[in-house]
Amino acid sequence: MKALITGGAGFIGSHLADRLLDRGDEVLVIDNYATGRRDNLKPRSGLTIVENTIADGQVVDDAIGSFGPDIVVHAAASYKDPDNWAEDSRANVLGTANVVRACMKRGVGRIIYFQTALCYGLQPIERPITLNHPLHPEASSYAISKTAGEQYIRLSGLNWLSFRLANAYGPRNLSGPLPTFFQRLTSNRPCFVMDTRRDFIYVHDLVDCVLRAIAKSALNGAYHISSGADFSINELFDAALKALNITLEKPVEVRPRGADDAFTILLDPSRTITDLGWRPTTSLTDGVAAAIAYYREYGIAETYTHLRIDKH
Ligand SMILES: NC(=O)c1ccc[n+]([C@@H]2O[C@H](COP(=O)([O-])OP(=O)(O)OC[C@H]3O[C@@H](n4cnc5c(N)ncnc54)[C@H](O)[C@@H]3O)[C@@H](O)[C@H]2O)c1
Question: Cys-Cys link to 88, which of 2, 140, 141, 195 (CB 3.0-4.6 A)?
Fold first, then answer.
């Protein structure tokens, strides 16, 4: 199979690329390295990387036209500066429109998208959130632009899948609390945790789900990829302490969440379980240990967030 992965040098995209390459597929990645890392994708047979932006429609059309993918996995997204609405719009709205139009023009059969659970807003009316929950992306530029992108995909008439994701974590993950915990705990800086809860999904479990979906060509529409359980950020912190073999003298400081943060986001994975026969298998303890082993080996140059958090 030939798969084109936008954002393939990023966390989720590179894990998917590795799995497809491992089984002999051809992969073309388009990435501008805004948040991707060069060491995520090692040069290997079957892999081509185009270093460019999906905001350039010609770049996207040329790549899709010359590679002729069977499937496009659209994982590229901008989110690292909550005030850079222009870049979020360029990458997430215009970029997605470019990817979709090129797929339509070039006859690509299928497109897979990754959507943020923030599309449901900061005060979801259900717990767990079902796929029928109304969309309320208005709280952030990231959610607004990602939701517009999802709407363009629906508009296309292509066979599409939008995976609305819980908080993915694991090796190569540079966003969310875990890489920050690692940085602070390994440099003797004080830590704090937010009073929030999140549904954490280990990246290998997530990629297993995507591979099952790729194999089922009749599948169409929105799905949740979620562990089905939410954990407090404090529990994540404890798993990090355990993986690092650190005991603190006093309990970690718990801080109230910011105005742009949700207390809990728990997604209902039942449609995914029914249609794909998929279930996550990695415990939080094992997943956090694998992420920490990665941070130790590769280091963390930068971390990213779409939130306006107090970094001090
Ligand atoms: N990680 C999560 O928990 C999570 C949750 C919900 C949704 N998502 C979505 O999953 C997808 C992958 O996210 P991730 O966690 O791997 O993040 P990531 O930052 O590691 O990957 C995104 C990749 O897109 C690239 N990129 C950004 N702008 C681009 C542009 N204009 N042109 C080309 N490449 C560009 C980045 O360099 C990066 O490699 C994104 O669409 C994101 O919105 C992720």
Answer: 141
Ligand 1 center to 9 CA (angstroms)? 9
Confidence (pLDDT) at 311: 44
- Which residues sit opposite 162 in a β-bridge? 113, 222
Give residue-wise pLDDT tens across range 181-240: 999 999 989 999 999 999 999 999 999 999 999 999 999 999 999 999 999 999 999 999
Q: Are 7 and 52 in contact (CB under 8 A)?
A: no
Residues within 6 Å of ligand 1 by CB? 6-7, 9-13, 30-36, 53-55, 75-78, 91, 95, 114, 116, 146, 165, 167-168
pTM of the model: 0.96
Give me the CATH topology for the region 2-169+200-225: Rossmann fold (3.40.50)
Q: Is 28:69 a contact under the CB 8 Å cutoff?
A: yes
Residue whose CB lies within 8 A of the most ligand 1 atoms, among 5, 11, 96, for a mutation test = 11
pLDDT for the residue 257: 85
What does the block give as tokens for 235? 């529990």
Question: What spacing in Å lies between the alpha carbon of 60 and ligand 1's midpoint?
Answer: 16
Give the C-alpha separation, 101 to 93, whole Å: 12
DSSP string covering 176-194: SHHHHHHHHHTTT---EEE
Is 310 a residue whose pLDDT tops 60? no
pLDDT at 76: 98
> Percent of the chain having pLDDT more than 90?
90
Question: Rounded distance, CA 97 to CA 153, Å?
Answer: 8
Give me the phi and psi of 31, to 5 degrees please: -155, 140
Strand runs labelled E in 89-246: 110-116, 159-165, 167-169, 192-194, 197-198, 200-202, 221-225, 231-232
Q: How far apart are CA 110 and CA 235, in angstroms?
A: 38
